[in-house]
Amino acid sequence: MTGSLKRMKRNIFLIGFGLLVSSYCLAAEKITLRIGVQATGTVVWELSAMQADPAFKNSDFQLDIHPVATAEAGKIALQSGAVDMIVSDWIWVSKLRHTGADFTFYPYSTASGGLVVPEKSAIQSIKDLPRKRLGIAGGELDKNWLFLQALAAKENIKLNDSVEKVFGAPPLVNEQLKQGRVDAVLTYWHFAVGLESEGYRQIIDGKAILQGLGIQEQMPMIGYVFKESWANDHKQAVSAFFKASKQARDGLCASDTVWQTVIPLLNADKVTTQTKLRQRYCEGTVIQWGEPEQQAAGRIYSLLRTLSSNQLTGDTENLSLGTFWSLK
């Protein structure tokens, strides 16, 4: 009986110890955030800097990075459930929420596109664009193109009717400019930087275009997009990720040592290009995100709704409730 009692006590101890270890492992298990990213996007820089930070191993989450070929491929991956998060724009989020989806948005950057011309071009302002050939990154519904038309309209210029338009992917329209097949390009900010580093001149950027349209707030047009229900179920991990994202960006902007670690990801050999990319990237830091910016988003939404004849926004008159996610 004594031996049986000892064995029983030992078994009870082992079972209890096993339960304790299992509980500890479950508590220590990290949430995996599956993020879809384009290889040419700046998100890759941030995620790389984040993972290189010694503090990353103690975070509440781990990353599973999924390369996506295009922005549209990222949207498909998110909607199919292949990833938890992508970087996209809040106009798309609002349109989806109107259809019943629960996607939501958290700001990533205020960086925007730019209008670029050759250094010796006679084009000095938007007023000089009529009767010129304009390369446009994206399509007819590209937001920068819609905003530029609206700004030109304030000068009584019908830009859509007065320029010869060439639509295409950013590398394509850049090449068209270099070969002299277009007189100017309206392109995404990091492709504008590539041109500037080769001696081309930026006429106006996206922020200045919005300011000309009465939007004075530094408005982030792109950000992380994810399901609201998923984020609410993993709020601690998601909040920790956004905090780590900000710390990574701050590190890239403040520390030359941190910046050096992402230079291989820039696809830019020239130091002048690398320097300009860093400058513009850091200028896109979201300094403030609150009621003024979200009210500005409402005004931008109304503007885009009119400019695109509802094609970009959908039929809903106002931004859908819940478009912007709150950390609270």
From TrEMBL:
Listed name of the protein: ABC transporter substrate-binding protein
- The SsuA/THI5-like domain sits at 56-249
Q: Sorted alphabetically, which InterPro entries does this protein's record hold?
A: SsuA/THI5
